[in-house]
Amino acid sequence: MAEQNLSVRSVAPSGNWDATAESYAGHIGSGNRVLLFALMVLAVGLGYAVVAAPLPLGAQVLFGIVCLVIAILLNRIEGRLVSIGLMAFSTLLSARYIYWRLTESLDYSDPRYNWVDIGFAYGLIAAELYAFTVLLLGYLQTLWPLQRPPVPMPRDLAIWPTVDVMIPTLNEPLAVVRPTIIAAMDMDWPRDRMRVMVLDDGARPEMQALCEELGALYIRRPNNQHAKAGNVNHGLEYSSAEYVAIFDCDHVPTRSFLQISMGWFLKDSQLSMLQTPHHFFSPDPFERNLGTFRSIPNEGELFYGLLQDGNDLWNATFFCGSCAVLRRSALDQIGGIAVETVTEDAHTSLRLQRKGWNTAYINLPQAAGRATESLAAHIRQRVRWARGMSQIFRIDNPLLGPGLSIAQRLCYLNSMLYFFFGLPRIVFLTAPLAFLLFDAQIIIASALVFAAYALPHLIHSQMTHSRLQGPFRYSFWAEVYETILCVYIVLPTFLALISPKLGKFNVTAKGGNRDRSFFDRKIALPYIILLLLNLGGFGLGLWRLFTNFGDDADSLVLNLVWTSYNVVILGVCTAVAWEQREIRRAVRVSAELPARVRLPDGTEISARTLDLSEGGTMLRLPRAVSLPLGSRIQVALIPEFDLVWMDADVTRSSNEILAMKFNALSLPQERQLIYAIFGRADAWLHWAERRPPDKVGTSFGNLFRLGLTGAKKIFSPSRN
Asked: Nearest to residue 161, comparing CAs of 270, 1, 362?
């Protein structure tokens, strides 16, 4: 192949990729293996000594305090090695708690304990063991995020490879798909080496006409077998390029996407797939309904901001179905996109890695799409992901079969196990009610002893997660995201384990709007029931505490605190179910870009955009201008790139602020607008720069406020 003869200069990352992979992914010389094994045995021995050491209550409390002080001091020091140290510290304290739970808090030999006590007790310990397993696998997965940089393309365009850009679509509005096609057609790549293919599973004449207008190749197939995976595989029959780039029909690429992505394929002849982040320019249901858009990380940022970077160290990057490039010869070797599960993307990357191919991740958003537009759609999408990962776990388990390293198997295992959080999350939401409502003894220990072991585990894991995940997920928000989904994913994940073929693929709708606010009672019903149960348990616990203050007072206080936390989380979930009115069809994107305005009298003024949409823009002028509403003006966006004037009508004129609505656009004008909004290489790179860092106390305070808001809306809906 031509790329094997290239000499491509590597951009030095924050640590060279080859050196990082060699140092941290297990390529260790044989001369050091004996020493490494000895050190591991010593570490395990010392760890077991710490985990299993018996201590009286006072000594355990002192141990916890000392550990907390050490962790706080370490947390003030920057550096990845310190982060690894905190992970190890957290692991030891969590293991000590689990060891104590298994060996000292489950003695139900006394005949006074009945099956209710035992059932609740073993349900809770099972949930805790699940959480501990996911904690350990998560620490491994994010041990050292690779932060792979782009590799520059060679100067000689003649040796750049050919790429077919595929945009699968089903029934999405043309207004959603059109910007994606335009942006894909305008990517910076030699025209004779790139082709845009629209794969229409909706067989729509209007989509074919759109492709003819824009110059894209239109492909339809005679059936919809295997949904998106089958659609892409059908498209591969018409593709002859060396590489395939895939975009969901609402994921609009930047002009630089291919130049950012393709260099690694020329550097690594065994690279089969390179994934970039899924970035969303519109708010998801949490951000919209809670009013947290761009001020709090959304649900997907943890995966694309940290976990995929962590996977990349272990050569375990997942294909995510969009915003990715795949090598055609690698796809051919595995028979195309996997069709056996509804998460065809992750399954495809697993099959590629089983064949010895490499995968990669560049954490630079080079495309942006629309987030799910309702809580119900969001839940349906996540249920599909959960069911698909359960299907893979059942039919192509990463722990079994050939071709994967131990680290790859564990990374896949963690991502699949995660989606089984439904039942453990329900257990955590209801466990304190076992004591408050039924007086079930779920832990055979005093509340003080339990707290002495549990608090170090909880505090250190929270502190470590805040340090590792803070830029991508604020403290306690994981509980909100999991609580929203837990009731809905329990049955699909377990059914997929029993019978992987049950269920069908569902497409996430995009491009809708709501002209009124409303409470989604059907979706919120499980949260309301759990909230009422926890409020009832809290009330009964308070009554027991103040009317029969006795030996179980400490246990009552502990369970009341636990229940209070659950009430806050469930209150936030009910607040998310209040779907907010959204009538603007074109999403406005905040962006400060150069512009020029031509006033009705012909005067031209330089300006800066404040926001942009496909329907209009708002500008800040250097001086006050007063124009009547409806005045016809012209605006040029990013004129230094291409001076394209667009007709617009004034919708607001106030001092230096000028807002306008675009009139009908020609194709050259539309291309310039799409470039201004979506196509710039740095369009999404600084999206979260102004976001404050995670602070545990502040994060919980925000959740507490949102939880109260959600609870108030249930009990006083007339105020909304």
From this structure: 1
Give the separation between CA 653 and CA 636, rounded to whole angstroms: 18
Q: How confident is residue 23, by pLDDT bands cut at 50, 70 and 90?
A: very low
For the chain, helix, strand, coil in percent to 5 are 50, 15, 35
pLDDT at 309 exceeding the cut of 70? yes
Do the Cβ atoms of 251 and 368 come closer than 8 Å?
yes
Per CATH, domain 157-373 is 3.40.50.11540: no
Tell whether pTM > 0.85. Answer: yes
Specify burial of residue 10 (Cβ count, 10 A radius: 0-12, 13-18, 19+): middle
Residue-wise pLDDT tens digits, 150-205: 999 999 999 999 999 999 999 999 999 999 999 999 999 999 999 999 999 999 99
Active site residues: 201, 345
Structure-block tokens of residue 67: 């550990």
Which of the listed CATH numbers 2.60.120.10, 3.20.10.10, 1.10.10.10, 2.40.10.220 matches domain 592-679? 2.40.10.220
Own/partner contacts of 38-47, CB < 8 Å, gap of 24 or more, are 47/91, 47/92, 47/95
547 vs 248, residue with greater confidence: 248
Q: Which residues contact 202 (CB under 8 A, 6 or more apart)?
A: 169, 170, 171
The number of C-alpha atoms within 13 Å of 453 and in the hemisphere containing its C-beta is 26
**Which residue's entry shows tokens 């995940």?**
469
Residue 578: enclosing H or E segment and its boundaries? strand 578-579
CB 305 within 8 A of CB 471: yes
Centroid of chain to Cα 506: 19
Domain range list for the chain:
157-373, 592-679
| C-alpha torsion sign, points 311, 474, 61, 448 | negative
